[in-house]
C-alpha cells in the first residue's frame, strides 16, 4: 500500500495528470491512481476528464490562469488616509467615512476599519 499525501496543491495533482496522460494512461486509471495516492476527495472523475482534455488540446501549464475581475480600490495608501480621518475624529461613523471615501463601498470600508485597522465598537 502506498503512503497517501494529504492536502495536495492543485498544481501537484494537475502535474500528475499531465504526466500520466503523457504516458498514455487512460483517464479512468488516472483517476483511480489519484484517489489511491491523494485520497477520496482529491478530484472528481469529471474534473480529471476536463484536465486530460485540456492537456490533449495543447495546454502545458498546470497552474490556474489569471482571472478577470474587478480590481480592489483599497490599497495601503487609502487605508492610511482612512486611519488618519479616524484619528482626526474619534467619534466617526461608517456613514461619515463613506461620505469622505465614496470610491469604497460601505461593506468594504467597514471590513477594513474593523479587520485591517482593528477599530471596534465599544
UniProtKB/TrEMBL annotation:
Q: Name one Pfam family in it.
A: HTH_48
The cross-references to InterPro entries, in alphabetical order and at most eight, read: Mos1_HTH, Transposase-MT_Hybrid
Q: Where is the Mos1 transposase HTH domain?
A: 13-58
Q: Which PANTHER family match?
A: MARINER MOS1 TRANSPOSASE-LIKE PROTEIN
Name of this chain's protein? Mos1 transposase HTH domain-containing protein
What taxonomic lineage is listed for the species of origin? Eukaryota, Metazoa, Ecdysozoa, Arthropoda, Chelicerata
